[in-house]
Design a protein that fits this description.
Lon_prtase_N_sf, 6 helices, alpha+beta, Lon_prtase_N, PUA-like_sf, Lon N-terminal domain-containing protein, 2 domains, Archaeosine Trna-guanine Transglycosylase, Chain: A, domain 4
Length: 225
C-alpha cells in the first residue's frame, strides 16, 4: 500500500488498529489534531504505524464512568475516530510532534490481547460509511444559528476569532473545527463524535454552548482563560 493511499470506503482500512486513549480529545473526519507524543508506549505505537506503512492511529476516549481511577487499562468508549499521520517532526529530545488527519469514525468490535505496550482494537467502520463522503449533509446545517451562538460564546469569554476564516469555511469544516476546539468535557465530546450526521452535530454543539452560556450567566462564573 502506498503511504499516501486514499481511503474511499471502510474496506480500504485495516480491521485492527492501534488506539490512543485520550480524555477530552475529539478527532473528526478530515479534521486535524496536533499531538505531542512522549510516553514510551505511544512512541512505540508511532514507530510501528510508520513501519507498517498505514500511518493510522485510532483516537478514542476512556469511559471514566465505567472505569476506576486506578485502572491501568480504563474502559474505552465504543466509538472513536481513526486518523492518519500527515505531519511528523522530531523534537530533538525524544518526542514526536505530529498531526493526525481524521479519516473515519469506528465502532470497537473487541479489544485484542496483544504483546505491544499500546492497546489495539478490532474495529468496524461500516456504521459510519458516510464519513468517506466529504461535506455530506452540509446544506442541512443551520449556519446562521451556529454563528450567532459562536458570537455569544466569544463575547462571554473575551475571545477573538479570525472571522474571515470562519465566514469562508464550508459548513463541514466549520462545524467539525468548532466541535474539536470546544472546551467541553468527555461526555459532550463523545456526543459530538457519535452524532449521526453533520446537522445533528451542529445542533448538539449549539445546545451545549447555549447551556454553558446560560449557566455562566446565572452562576456568575468568570470567563474562560
Amino acid at each position: 500500500m502506498p503511504i499516501n493511499a486514499a481511503y474511499r470506503g471502510p474496506a480500504d482500512l485495516p480491521e485492527v488498529i492501534p488506539v490512543f486513549p485520550l480524555p477530552g480529545a475529539l478527532l473528526l473526519p478530515r479534521g486535524q489534531m496536533p499531538l505531542n507524543i512522549f510516553e514510551p508506549r505511544y512512541l512505540a505505537m508511532i514507530d510501528d504505524a510508520l513501519r507498517d506503512g498505514h500511518r493510522l492511529i485510532g483516537m478514542i476516549q476512556p469511559d471514566s464512568a465505567h472505569s476506576s481511577e486506578t485502572a491501568e487499562k480504563p474502559t474505552l468508549f465504543n466509538v472513536g475516530c481513526v486518523g492518519r499521520i500527515t505531519q511528523l517532526a522530531e523534537s530533538g529530545d525524544g518526542r514526536y510532534i505530529l498531526e493526525l488527519t481524521g479519516v473515519s469514525r469506528f465502532k470497537v468490535v473487541e479489544e485484542l490481547q496483544v504483546l505491544t505496550p499500546y492497546r489495539q482494537c478490532k474495529v468496524d467502520y461500516f456504521p459510519f460509511v458516510d464519513d468517506f463522503t466529504a461535506r455530506k449533509g452540509e446544506d442541512e446545517v443551520d449556519r446562521e444559528t451556529l454563528l450567532a451562538v459562536l458570537t455569544d460564546f466569544l463575547k462571554a469569554n473575551n475571545l477573538k476569532v479570525d472571522w474571515d476564516g470562519v465566514e469562508s469555511a464550508p459548513n463541514e469544516a466549520l462545524v467539525n473545527a468548532l466541535a474539536m476546539m470546544s472546551p467541553y468535557g468527555p461526555p459532550e465530546k463523545q456526543a459530538l463524535l457519535e452524532a449521526p450526521d453533520l446537522k445533528t452535530r451542529a445542533e448538539i454543539l449549539i445546545a451545549v454552548t447555549e447551556m454553558d452560556l446560560a449557566k455562566k450567566r446565572t452562576s456568575g462564573d468568570p470567563p474562560l482563560q
